[in-house]
Amino acid sequence: MAVEPLSQKEIEDRLAELPGWSAEGDRLTRAYRLGSHFAAAALVMHIAGIQDELDHHSDLTLGYNTVSLSVNTHSAGGVVTAKDFGLARRVEDIAPSHGAH
User: Fold this and answer.
1) What is the pLDDT of residues 48-66, one digit of tens each?
2) What are phi and psi of 27, to 5 degrees?
3) How distant is the alpha carbon of residue 94 from its chain centre?
């Protein structure tokens, strides 16, 4: 079954439920700042596991004490879909709540 792109209004409405996430062009993005490089690396491993479970993968960048995600749905033509918000919600569920920057 094809995944349909979300309208700009749908994206805005869903972003309201995910503080820290934003729409940048045709992608959802979020950055987290953690207490150490080890904590950031551990978060990357947790996110990688979720992405494999969902079979939906973001661009994931590990910095010294930061983790950044950028995601859209390639199979829908590189646009934001409900799959992207599903991944974002799962990441929020495991990420430190104080980790926004």
Assistant:
1) 999 999 999 999 999 999 9
2) -140, 155
3) 12
Residue 77: partners with Cβ closer than 8 Å, 6 or more residues away: 5
Concatenate the DSSP letters of all residues of 56-74 into one string: ---EEEE-SSEEEEEE-BG
Question: β-pairing, 27-33 with 22-24?
Answer: antiparallel
b/e burial code for range 10-28 (CB count within 10 A of at least 16 → b): ebeebbeeeebbebeeebb
Question: How do residues 86-96 score in pLDDT, each as one tens digit?
Answer: 999 999 999 98
- What pLDDT was estimated at residue 85? 98
